[in-house]
Amino acid sequence: MVASVYKLYAMSVRGLGVAVASGREKAYAYLKDTVLTDPAMQGAFLSEQELADRIGVSRTPIREALLMLAAEDLVELVPKRGARVAPLTGREVRELMELRGMAERYAAERLVAADRVPLEELRALLERQRALTGAEETHEFIAVDHRFHASLVSAVGNTLLDRHYDGLRSRQVRAGVVAVFNRQGRQQAVLDEHEAIVDALAAGDAQAACAAIDHHLESTLKVLLDG
Q: Which of 13, 71, 196, 199 is the residue whose CA sits 20 to 30 A from 7?
């Protein structure tokens, strides 16, 4: 099952034209985008050998990738026990939503003022999400969810803001996947909340767009904290 997931992941990477240049980068990408976003793996210890067998690399690239993830506080290195997937804490989730809110509200205000809202792209991503409501499509649904929000921020044209926001991606995807698994009907709620954001932006109402963004983030936060 996991091997097939990795095969699909590798195919999608190749389809995007992304070259995985080394075993370490392959291991890092797989761990960050597949293992760390699996709700069943939150708080679990990882087997270097099992991961090496799944990905088709030696244990050395696995160790190097785990060190990189530990530097990002995404895994914990526990003496004599190995690497553990660091679960999202309540404080971390609150801080994540706070930072996202700052970036996304700023983007909405700037884009409405400049009449540069990427409405066509946002609507296309929303329609893509509508087609991904099956349980087996949760990870792709959340990947598109991230692209929806990142497209809004990216449209501002501030490279440093893009870099800052992209740094939140792994935690954002993890939080989104966990929220969908924690609450039945959360996918439909996300679609409704995204539609409210797009409608406000299309109307040129920055205040309403910011309120819709806040509601969306607060709803996700509540689901995550309620467990």
A: 71
